[in-house]
Write a structure and sequence with these properties.
two-stranded antiparallel sheet, 6 helices, 40% helix, globular
């Protein structure tokens, strides 16, 4: 597992300055918990392990988890994208049929980070969270700021599709 909030190593490893945030969330998890509470415990443990492995493999740091949501920080947007793609591939190979499948949405956004006591705050984090809310299970949404930094370093077989501009709740364009 990558370093977690509250550990000395996590605080010393958190990226500063310009950071790429990778947020994830299981789509429809509340309904799955209601319908399959025992199976969801096992599915969530496996989900958490797969995401943590992908984030750690690509140099990221999980700085917060809330329920089934992960918040990770990366020094480079290319590493965040590789982690998101790796996580989606790992999740797709798993058998989550007992809980009706798991669709995990992810969002990447890059900007100047405000860090305090092992957590991040401010407009960049807010934008990443709002972008995540627009996604659907299996999607990796990439903000314009991150896309500009990624367009020349995409991994083989990967492309970005422009989905157009979207208004993000409570945020200026």
């Amino acid at each position: 597992m990558p370093p977690r909030l509250g550990t000395t190593s996590a605080r010393t490893m958190l990226p500063t300055g310009t950071v790429t945030f990778a947020f994830s969330d299981i789509e429809g998890s509340t309904q799955r918990w209601e319908a399959h509470p025992l199976e969801m415990r096992s599915a969530l443990r496996r989900h958490d392990s797969l995401l943590a492995e992908a984030i750690e493999t690509h140099g990221g740091c999980v700085f917060k988890t809330v329920g089934d949501a992960f918040c990770a920080a990366f020094e480079r947007p290319s590493n965040a994208l590789l982690a998101a793609l790796d996580a989606q591939r790992r999740l797709a190979r798993e058998d989550f049929v007992p809980v009706g499948g798991l669709g995990v949405r992810m969002a990447l956004h890059t900007g100047a980070a405000d860090e305090r006591d092992g957590d991040y705050f401010g407009p960049v984090v807010n934008r990443a969270a709002r972008l995540l809310a627009l996604g659907h299970g299996g999607q990796v949404l990439v903000s314009g700021a991150s896309a500009d930094l990624l367009c020349d370093v995409l991994p083989p077989g990967c492309s970005l599709a422009n989905l157009g501009g979207h208004r993000l709740k409570d945020l200026s364009p």
